[in-house]
Every structure is written in C-alpha cells, then in structure tokens.
Design a protein that fits this description.
Layout: H1 3-20, E1 31-39, H2 47-61, E2 66-69, E3 84-91, H3 93-107, E4 128-132, E5 152-158, H4 163-172
Antiparallel strand pairs: 1-3, 1-5, 2-3, 4-5
Length: 185
C-alpha cells in the first residue's frame, strides 16, 4: 500500500471526522483523482516536440498520456480544429497516492524560490489546481536531456463540498500551503 494512503487512513480521516463532525467515515472527503496536463501550443510548429513532452509526462506519472486536440480553429494562433495541442493523464487509486507523495516530498521542495502554495487556486467546489513552470522539478526527468522546457497543471479533484474542507484534507496530507493565508505570489 502506498505510504500516503496509509497516512490518509490512519491520521487524516480521524482528524477530519473530529474537526467537521462527520457521522460516517465514508462521508469524509477524499481525493478522487489527480489530472496532470501539459499544453503544448508550440507543437503546431514542431510535431517532434509533442513526442518529447509525451515521454516526459509518461516518465513523471508512470502512465501513457492522452492527446488533447483543438476544438476550434483560431487563425491568430495558427491553430486548426483537430490539431494536437496538449497531453493529459488522469491518475486514480494507488498511482494517484504515489504521485501525490512524490509531488509533496520530492518535486515541490525542488521548486526555485518556493514560498508555499497559494490558497486562491481552489475552485469553490473543493478542487485544487497548481501550476508548475518546468518539468525538471521531478526527479524522473534528467535536465541535461530536456530539449523543451515545459510547464504543467496538476488538478486535485476531491469529494469535499467546500474549499475549507478540501484545504484541510490536502494540508493534512502534507501539501505545503502558505502560512500567512494570503494568495499573493
């Protein structure tokens, strides 16, 4: 069993039951899935860029990414409908917990000038999204072999009904949120 899953079951669930007075342990919020996505807009000019980014995303998540295509044509961006412009991976169960654990313990501490995650990235329904500027913060990526520096968005989809519950869930799991409570960068 993943280390973070064990922490969730033994420490996080009892604390959430105590704080929010849940009657049933099944009512306690949990992380349903984690979506890791990379928009590769420059892939419209260079098709090989998408392959390199696909390999990086596969190394980071341990799962084959799905290609995302443009829905509309936009002439200002030289974009046609149906053109490949991004990649995404949806992680669930064991792989999700392993990814969150690696993100919290290995990747986030390697972010340059890191001062904590913003509290403004909750969506009002208990989901949280963070943006990472470069994929080299993950230990699976060798910086010397990187051709294209690429950022990514990581979305945590939870069963929490409010942002307060989701914040407490994620912070108990080890997410390093800002201590001052401000969302300022």
């Amino acid at each position: 069993m993943a280390r973070l899953k064990e922490i969730y079951k033994t420490k996080v669930v009892p604390q959430l039951i105590e704080e929010f007075k849940y009657q049933n342990p099944m009512a306690v919020p949990r992380v349903q899935k984690v979506i890791v996505s990379m928009g590769v807009g420059r892939a419209t000019e260079n098709e090989k860029m998408l392959d390199a980014v696909k390999q990086d995303l596969m190394n980071i998540t341990g799962q084959m990414p799905v290609e995302c295509r443009a829905r509309k044509s936009v002439s200002n961006f030289k974009l046609r409908a149906g053109q490949k412009i991004g990649l995404k991976v949806t992680l669930r169960r064991e792989r999700m917990f392993e990814f969150i654990d690696r993100l919290i313990s290995l990747a986030i501490p390697r972010i340059r000038d890191f001062r904590g995650l913003s509290l403004k990235s909750f969506d009002g329904k208990g989901n949280y999204t963070i943006g990472i500027d470069e994929q080299t913060v993950f230990p699976e990526i060798e910086p010397a072999k990187i051709e294209y520096q690429q950022g990514m968005d990581i979305t945590f989809v939870t069963t929490a009904e409010t942002d307060e519950q989701a914040h407490k869930l994620l912070s108990l799991m080890g997410m390093p949120f800002r201590k001052d409570g401000s969302g300022n960068e």
